[in-house]
Write a structure and sequence with these properties.
This protein has 15 helices and 13 strands. By secondary structure, the protein is of the alpha/beta class. It has two domains: 178 residues, Glycogen Phosphorylase B (Rossmann fold), CATH 3.40.50; 165 residues, Glycogen Phosphorylase B (Rossmann fold).
Length: 356
């Protein structure tokens, strides 16, 4: 049995945090000791197996000063002597690789975003990331697209593991058994990169010929006021709803005819995967994750980023072709076999043990 130390910013509401929640039991079952080290501290939002020790760096080094945090993290690694350090999220992956220079512990980094997107340091930030990633013993990505980006520089060092979906067999395909409304749905933070602006623009064009349809947008974020102004300006107050956050998303979206995603880029959208597993056909921009799972015209449609005209056309196709829509939903639900929790957890354990 081996000891594992896991680094992450926090255990808040994000996708990486959710993955670590799902993995916690499997990690505790398969490693002698597992410790999560949080660079930003905070309380866990998702449940974590009680056998996993959680350490908050700010409790030891305060919240200010990365140099002090890195020194503290290095002391923790030297004290715990883990056989492997697993790190999530690019900025913290870089901090971990800097902190462990000269130590013997193996380090695997988990990348959760588009590798070609500029970091806060611009091109210099990407250059530094790649220099540091060259030290890593493994690079895990969520999508084939992300893997291909790193394969150019680190051939043989990268692997893909999809995000797990915590869904029972009885919940798979539930949208296929739910009475449909004239409704399109989406879920995600209200921020520029999600480009709900194009979605609303497309819906406005679609709505002219389908006035009985609604669009419900779940999520919250800094674009709320701007999007509401757009909705008001288009006279869509009764048709487009900014519904905020919900803890019951699956039940709320099951009656929709399709799920929409208009992101400019993604790591891998959990909301998109879950919608497909529920049996909802999807219309998505050609972003990482979507291009892994969507077969255009079979289980959904793929469109170019910011192509609101194509989105409106695909929405009309969904609305006007119930037989096509239903078959797409059936095909979409089959994605579950690729992302079911037990399968993904097994892949994680096999990968990590292969690197120790």
């Amino acid at each position: 049995m081996y000891k594992l130390l896991v680094s992450i910013a926090s255990l808040g509401t994000g996708g990486a945090e959710r993955v670590l929640s799902v993995l916690s039991k499997s990690l505790a079952d398969n490693f002698e000791a597992v410790q999560y080290v949080l660079w930003e501290g905070g309380e866990p939002f998702y449940p974590v197996d009680e056998r996993v020790k959680i350490v908050s760096l700010p409790d030891f080094s305060g919240k200010n000063g990365r140099n002090l945090q890195m020194m503290t993290f290095r002391r923790i690694v030297k004290s715990v002597k883990p056989d492997m350090v697993l790190s999530f999220l690019t900025p913290y992956n870089m901090l971990v690789l800097l902190s462990t220079i000269g130590l013997k512990q193996k380090v695997v980094v988990a990348e959760r975003t588009d590798p070609r997107r500029l970091l806060s340091g611009g091109k210099a930030g990407l250059w530094l990331r790649d220099r540091l990633y060259s030290r890593a013993d493994g690079i895990l990505t969520q999508t084939e697209y992300a893997k291909s980006c790193y394969d150019e520089k680190f051939a043989g060092k990268t692997a893909v593991i999809y995000n797990p979906v915590m869904m029972s067999d009885s919940q798979v395909g539930v949208a296929l058994r739910t009475e449909k409304e004239h409704l399109f749905v989406t879920a995600g933070r209200l921020e520029p990169v999600k480009d709900q602006t194009s979605m609303i623009e497309a819906f406005a064009a679609f709505h002219k010929n389908h006035p009985d349809y609604r669009l419900v947008i779940y999520g919250e974020g800094p674009m709320h006021e701007t999007l509401q102004e757009q909705i008001n300006g288009l006279g869509l107050q009764d048709a487009v709803v900014l519904a905020g956050r919900t803890n019951d998303l699956w039940n709320k979206i099951a009656s929709a005819e399709a799920f929409l995603l208009t992101s400019e880029y993604e790591g891998m959208s959990n909301a998109l995967i879950e919608a497909m597993c529920l049996g909802l056909p999807v219309i998505s921009t050609k972003v990482a994750g979507a291009t892994d799972l969507i077969r255009d015209g079979e289980n959904g449609f793929l469109i170019d980023v910011k192509d609101s005209k194509s989105l409106a056309v695909r929405m009309s196709r969904m609305a006007d072709s119930p037989d096509v829509r239903e078959q797409m939903g059936i095909n979409a639900s089959k994605v579950f076999d690729q992302v079911r929790q037990d399968k993904i957890c097994k892949q994680w354990i096999e990968y990590l043990k292969s690197k120790v």
